[in-house]
Amino acid sequence: MYAKGDAEPTYRVQRLLLPVMADNNTPMPIDGACAEAVRDLIARRAEVAHSGVEVQAAEPLPWWRSLVRRLSHETPDAHHPAVPAVAGAPWQDRPSPERRGWRSRSAYLKGGEEPVAEVDYQTCMACRLGSVEQPYTLPRFQRRGLAAAALAALRAEHPGLSWHTLGGHIDGSPAFWDTVGADIPGGYRPRGVCAHVTPGG
User: Fold this and answer.
1) Paired strand residues for 132
2) What sign has the CA pseudo-torsion 76, 80, 81, 85?
3) pLDDT digits (tens, 9 = 90+) for 145-200
4) Which of 98, 126, 130, 174 is the most buried (most CB within 10 A)?
5) Residue 42 belongs to a domain
6) Residue 92: which CATH number?
């Protein structure tokens, strides 16, 4: 991990440590002001700042390069630089720093520099499919509705789609996916992406 006295791990490192950190279904306690800020963030889920940066289509990687990227957790790369957050915007939409060809929807508490929740997504209007992958909420904000709010906002912005995941993260949270997928076309059940889009990575 990190030595005593070092800075706390960054958001991306915390995201990789999620299976170790999330050990039960009890929300971590947060103070009243913070809880109110989370409720406000959920209520403002339609207030999204779009980066204006177009997602670059992913170029096929040789098998060995893809393996190196996965093993080294290499993100982002020189062809797909991270896009800075828009100051003051509660929800932000920009190219995913982890999946080429995908977008990322992120939630920021007022004055926060790192997202408290984030999910990668991609849509194909030709096939009427929406794909989401790797939703993440910082441990102290989990089980408070932020991920569900992000998914609801994406469905509202892209009506008429059938919503799925690639399935790489479902094993650890079946109850979440059963809840958010109830009465939703596709139900967030695992499915590969269509031929028009890229699986990312």
Assistant:
1) 121, 165
2) negative
3) 999 999 999 999 999 999 999 876 666 678 888 899 999 999 999 998 888 877 66
4) 130
5) yes
6) 3.40.630
146 burial level (CB within 10 Å; 0-12, 13-18, 19+): buried
Kindly report the pTM of this predicted structure. Answer: 0.71
Is-contact 154 106, C-beta < 8 A? no
In this predicted structure, the answer to whether residue 89 has a pLDDT above a threshold of 80 is: yes
Number of structural domains in the chain: 1
Structure tokens belonging to residue 117: 């929740």
Domain limits for position 99: 32-190
Q: What is the mean pLDDT of residues 71-83?
A: 51
Q: Which residues contact 42 (CB under 8 A, 6 or more apart)?
A: 144, 145, 146, 149
In a domain, 17, yes or no: no
Give the whole-angstrom CA distance, residue 140 versus residue 42.
16
Closest by Cα among 119, 114, 121 to 173 = 119
DSSP string across 24-89 = SSSPPP--HHHHHHHHHHHHTTT-EEE--PPPPPPPPPPHHHHHHHHHHT--S-TTSPPPPPPTT-
- Taking alpha carbons only, the member of 127, 77, 122, 124 closest to residue 103 is 122
